[in-house]
Amino acid sequence: MTNLAVGELVAVVVFWINFFLFKKLIITIKSLISISFSLFIRSFILVQGSIFWCILIKRISKPGFAAKYTGKIYNKLKILDVILLCMGVLVIILNYSTFFIMVISFAIWIFAVIEWVNYYKLQLSYSLNPVVLLKYIMQRKLRRSKIANEIDNSFDFEIYGETLEEAHKNFKTKIVDGQKTEFVPDGKPGIPPKNSKFSLVNYPSKLGEMPMYITAKENNGKKYPAIIYLNRGFGGIGDSEFGWDEESPKNNY
User: Fold this and answer.
1) How far apart are CA 16 and CA 4, in angstroms?
2) What are the angstrom distances between the C-alpha of 148 and each of 63, 198, 221?
3) Any transmembrane segments, and where (predicted)?
């Protein structure tokens, strides 16, 4: 991942160095605007990718790093990128000077679109050998991009920073017995059904951050995050530890 993070930034630097080296060959203002705007869009998307790889690298030593905000921020960047890409087409067309310049501008723009798809939709980078990508396309085995998964796993509940005790006290959290859910058959961690709205997060607790699934669970018109433990086994942190009684009237959700 370090190579990916550094590689994207190096690519941006190389692009702009070449741009300024060959700038003198761009003889009109319209040509300059057309090429530079396309290059800006591509560079902007590459920087987003580099930052995301840096976040994933940080999560190796600090699980859950920036998990609360990353998906939401990148969802907004995804929309902003689409707007910029649409503007790019208009900028290229409105600043037409020569056919050659237009071809170069659209070529840079197309590469920007490919980078956007690679980051926000489907992973297109698997190997330096293009045959590998072609094979994945033919077999329809392209994977969803990591940023796409990050966006899907973002959630609107402001529960990070709360301990389980505080969340329970504020009636925002429902503790679910992992062994009694479809996600953990036979007491072993499972995966939520496809197209479900469950998000994998690291929830803070007195025993450290614990990976678990969270979703909006509606009861009596109110929504609460439902938590299913994924590690430390059944009872790793249970009712008895904090004196919680799920059968108590005060805990009726």
Assistant:
1) 19
2) 19, 14, 30
3) 9-33, 39-58, 79-112
List the structure tokens of 66. Answer: 């920036």
Give CA–CA dist 151/147, Å, rounded.
Answer: 6
Which helix (H) or strand (E) is 7 found in, with range? helix 2-21
Q: Would you state the structure tokens that stand for residue 146, as one six-digit string?
A: 């990591």
Other beta carbons within 10 Å of 21: 9
* Separation CA 82–CA 59 (nearest Å): 28
The model's pLDDT over 15-49, given as tens digits with 9 standing for 90+, comes to 999 998 888 788 789 999 999 999 999 999 999 99
Class of residue 217 by CB neighbours under 10 A (exposed 0-12, middle 13-18, buried 19+): middle
- DSSP symbol at 22: S
Give residue 16's pLDDT.
93
- Which two tokens mark 141? 């085995």
CB count in 10 Å sphere of residue 245: 10
